[in-house]
Amino acid sequence: MSFLGVQDPRMTKQGGYRICLRGAGGRAWQGQKTSMLGRVKIELITTGSELLLGHVLNSHPGYLSGRLAELGLMLSRQTAVPDGKDAIAAVVKEAWGRSDLVIVTGGLGPTSDDVTREAVAAVFKKEMVFHPEILEKILGYFAARDLKAPEMVKVQAMVPKGMEVLPNERGTAPGLMWEEGGKMLVILPGPPRELGAMFEARVEPKLRGWAKPGVRTRVVRVVGIGESAVQEKCEEVLRGIGVEEIGYCARPGEVDVRLRGEAEKVLQAGVDKLRECLGVAVYGEGGETMEEVVVGLARAGKIKLATAESCTGGLVASRITDVAGASEIFVGGWVTYSNDAKARDLGVKRESLEKYGAVSGVVAGEMAAGAREKSGADWAVAVTGIAGPRGGSAGKPVGLVYLGIAGAGGVETIEKKLVPERKTFKAMASQAALNLLRVKLLANPFHKTEV
Question: pTM for the full model?
Fold first, then answer.
């Protein structure tokens, strides 16, 4: 499991706005200078040399900042630090001196580079104490999986004296918590599935009430419109109704609009205004994903879906089946990467492939029609394009994609030009295909700019 996050944010100022430029394909929050809403000083320290070497995407800040925002809290600083007791201790000591809440992630495992426990013990001048009940639980974790526990796991049962132990229900490394002088230190394991479960079950309940009473955040998710266009269309209206803080978080082909303030009535009015201004381009709220919206609409209408994919390699189908309940509405999908597979499995005409090429509106339409006919689905969506880096031409450049959709009323196709970088292209193409399904499920007419 991986949470969408940020790696090494670079902060700059531009025209009175705060802009956080994040890594390639990542997110970028841009908004008016942050207000003092809920300004508890919170600092996040992520440990691990792999983060600084670029071997692993640092997903912790994105996840934790989102969870904190739901509590009316905001991160004020984030630092990544390499493995090493002295390096970690220095950053923790500095953070503890200026922040109300310090969250440290990683370095709680059993190997020689997992030294966060020892670093924290050094900062707070605490001896390490063995907890037999922790070891018993760790051994039980291995036994339940018919595995022999390595001798080195015993180090995970060592705890700085007096610190609260946070049970780990998804792994072996317990978390730690320390409260002193109105401040709190939280230490969480690095694996995202362990970190997330522990934070939500053990930390969030203690943080409720830390924010200024009534501070709330609403996020509206927008597709197919750039952040500048969203701001031009909506910000003046939002300011006019009293929204206190507005931020824009851009990803390829999408924008999240963050509204933050104390009055729920004003925030709801802001959400309503965004839907009014942007129409069908608004696809969800909060952490809703496009696939969750599509599956939800299909389940509500008892509508069956199918997919036919070339350049996305099954990503559209994968995203649909990531959603619980997809089995009620998803009939099946085809990955037809070669021309032979398109003709054999979906009934695409050989003459269409020869005359127009695999990357064409005609072939996208025939792929969608074939998938619908063979699956018996109500709607079938198809994707064919050039992901790159090779394979493009002057007439058909890298980044070109055609979408086809087939329903009871016939077949329609759309041409789009996306980012010519393979992984980003595939993500954007799958999002466009899902959005095309969404628009059809909403029974709205569509044109190129809407998907």
Answer: 0.77
